[in-house]
Amino acid sequence: MDKIWLIIQREYLTRVKKKSFLVMTILGPLLFGGLILGAVFLSSKDEIYQRVLISDPQGWIIEKEVLEPQLAGIERNLFKNSDHLNYDFRKANVDALNEIKSGAYTIVVEVTGDSYGDGKCVMTYAKVPSLKMQQSIQENIESSFEKYRVDKYGLKWTDYQAIKQQVDFTMRNAEKPEENTMVNLKAGIGFSFAIFIYLFILLYGVQVMRGVIEEKTNRIIEVIISSVKPFQLMMGKVIGIGMVGLTQFVIWVLLTSVISAVGIGSYREKLTNDMMANALVMQPDKGSGVNTVISQEALEKSLKLQAENEKGNEALEAISSIPWVDVILSFLFFFIGGYLLYASLFAAVGAAVDSETDTQQFMMPITLPLIFGYLVSFMMIENPEGNLGTIFALIPLTSPIVMMVKTAIGVSIGLKLLSMGILTLAFIFFTWLAGRIYRVGILMYGKKATYKELWKWIRYSG
What's the distance, CA 27 to chain centroid? Predict the structure, then answer.
């Protein structure tokens, strides 16, 4: 045990003292957050300028959405121009291809008489517009078609808006009716933990494998083996590198917690300010003694803002209702258990080969379960309590990833204990298996290992 501890210290201190470790540990969360914000910022600035022609032979859009607001001297609600988008309208059929080829327009939307009924239009473009831009144009035309149908049937737009109410479910668990259950959001948060385990196992598992290959090719291993048993060396290397990752994770959690606390505080402040502004819009003008006349646009905006605030509060309540102590403790168990299981296999692969290029044939069987666990976890965001998640939460090669999603949404203690027990037994078995390969392969040189050779090494009793 003392020898294993010495190996753990060596592996841990050697890596922790590196400048690259310090840089990535301290700056990692900031760099990661900066990359996400930078990508969002650049994507928002990367919009291609589009000049859009709406061909509307029937003329409803032109008359009601363009001319009518202009005559009334008010800003129209739909088809507003922006820095990236400029609308033009024509009450006639057009040759879309010629309009594009001439360079006059980059997008032509052809609206026919049938379009007002079936909603089908043709969009011709020079360069594919972004999804955000497509959605903006589509929503404008859809709203126009709605107003046309309302007018056609002699209804008032305000009456139609009152009738047209979307269904909004408030989810409630029969076993815990008082609990906020935005299950998909919780599953998404659990998935973020699953991603971390997935990346950690790959990143540090490969480090174990590379460390073994490096020592083997430099023949340092022959000197080390004279003092310690191969199994002790393998476990010391696996645990030492794992402790490096755990240290990095703890520091990341602390930094992320501080950043998240600031972010959530700012978001709550924004919600409060928005709600106050919303209340001011709806209040009567007490100075004049008469109620302020509120336009339909202002009323719709106010109601929309109120709905967004309510959803934001529900999301925060859902996040608060997650069993965080259970999630963190489960994360630590599956984080450590999954790493130890896979790292021992990576160590065995490193011992079986002479160079990193020879690892490909053995890497696929190891990484496939990890990838499959990641895919199952991702699918669980849409279907959190499906049978697929339950099955793969019990398979030890996928459970470290899948169980994080199950824990975030709520899982029975029986299923969790069963999953933990199976993972523990699997870890013991795979560590034994990897140790059998490692003790022989670590001193083998010049011969490419095959699966048949590995089987002989496992069975070798010397």
Answer: 21
